[in-house]
Amino acid sequence: MAVMSGAADSMLPKLVDDPEAVALAVEPWAQPGRKNKKTCRRALLVGSLMTLLLLACFVLGRESASSAAWLQIDLLAKLTAMNNGTAEPSIDRVTSIASGLTTTTHAPHGRDELLGGLLPAGMNRRTCRSRYESWRYYKYFPYAASPHLQDKLRAYEARHRRCAPGTPLYAKSVEQLRSGRSADGMECTYVVWLPFDGLGNRMLSMVSGFLYALLTDRVFLAALPADSADLFCEPFPDTTWRLPLEDFPVADLLPRGQSIERSYTSLLDAKEVGPDANATAGVPPYVYVSLGWQLKDPLFFCGEHQLVLGKVNWLLLYSDLYFSPSLYAVAEFQDELRRLFPAKESVGHLLSRYLFHPTNPVWSLTTRYYRSYLATAKRRIGVQVRMFSYGSISADDMYSQILACSQQEHILPETEDGDEDEVVAATRNGDNADGSNSTAILVASLYADYYERLRSRYYDHGAKGGERVAVFQPSHEERQATDNMAHNQRALAEIYLLSFSEELLTSGRSTFGYVSSNLAGVRPTIMLTAYDHKIPEPPCRRAVSMEPCNLTPPLGVECRGKPVDKEDLARHLRVCEDSKDSVKLFD
């Protein structure tokens, strides 16, 4: 039994200058005739290279995974170079096997570079490689974008191009903002996302804010801070989603807390907005919407208050929540959400894959690590561990909870006691030359403890059936540093590495885990929080919806507008598996 471990201190250094040189480009079949001899020579060379690869895998079988991964990357580069940067189908089949990118796909929906029409065509490939390459790494494509969602996104993209920063309509809207009041009939109205909390929280609130923009025909802009400036590509074609901060006419744009002077509830209490507002004063030019974990503006989720907010040209969104589930409880949005997302658990999944595309530096970091350590495994399991102060337990207890959960849900490979000769015999008897009996476990945690323990577990005890098990951890930062760009790039790379897994074991109430499983299209197993500082019983639950949880829903808020379809709401909005006071979307 060979146990392989990954670099625990930092992400893998650069392997190749141009990751496109090893991309698996699928080209049409070669035409018969004058190319036949050339094709035969290529096929012979490919066969020779593959023979060398298999021989190397046999020789290195009990060595580190990184040795084989480096050889595979070199092989891919040679295969691609043979075709001047392209790959004919025979070569594509070889490289697919070598890289492990297309060996596991569990559903046909959207398995192409446009994700079944979800993404727009024609955007620059070199400036954002991840947009059209990510589909090769995802293992699940559970839902296709509905025709109505595709139409809605294309219409939104056109609106964004008309209204984005740098356009005459944007300049007109900013001048209206400077005037001190909102105006009727403005062609462009906006929701501006403001950063709040860590990367996982930010990504979930961005998805929710973008969904709200779709539902209300607003333009979604992001006030990206310096620590997030080089994380994501521009999501919309031929335009930008970045708010120009240097000349935006709202002083102290970023709030210092969730109690905001110009928030909707504050303005409502002061009778500056709403039915009791002074009509002669006009509608304010902008309103903050405070939807953080304290939920200072719960009336935002009432239809009658959406009518009021609809008159405000600029909404400034300050949130660290995935509040999409609570939008389904707004009667005015319910029918449109049904049409956009026939499968309710697809909301965050589809919008996350549409909106987020890592920049080239982050994508290179991600794919180099994947190809070097994870690609050749038959199965990849992501283990994401996050502990909160209100549910803290010892490292020993946390590790015990991981093992108990794994045993309950049959996630990690089982081990068996035996002497070394028995383990080696089991490994040799298994047909594992092509990695068909291998599992890679990727650990994502701020600490190295759980990686070290899992690595020792499979080093000291062989996996049943001679299964080859590798344990990796790209980094262990010890503390969260959201205001650090390099930290955020590594965190985003690990989110995507987790999303390339076949199975996920995540921590309850962790937005990092929510985002990973959401992108993966996987219903994770969620470890429950130790509220009484003891290992919970049961230790975990298998999620029945991949949707993230809204950890602070507007419970107890009485709305007086159009009644919502309560039967439909009860069917699709339920309590989260990992938080009894929170809700998520179900089917």
Automatic annotation (TrEMBL):
Entry keyword Transmembrane helix: yes
UniProt keyword Glycosyltransferase, yes or no: yes
A cellular-component GO term for this protein: Golgi cisterna membrane
Topology relative to the membrane: Single-pass type II membrane protein
Class of enzymatic activity (EC top level): transferase
Record keywords: Cell wall biogenesis/degradation, Glycoprotein, Glycosyltransferase, Golgi apparatus, Membrane, Transferase, Transmembrane, Transmembrane helix
EC number(s) per entry: 2.4.1.-
Gene Ontology MF terms: galactoside 2-alpha-L-fucosyltransferase activity
Family in the record: Belongs to the glycosyltransferase 37 family.
Protein name (database record): Fucosyltransferase
Source organism per UniProt: Zea mays
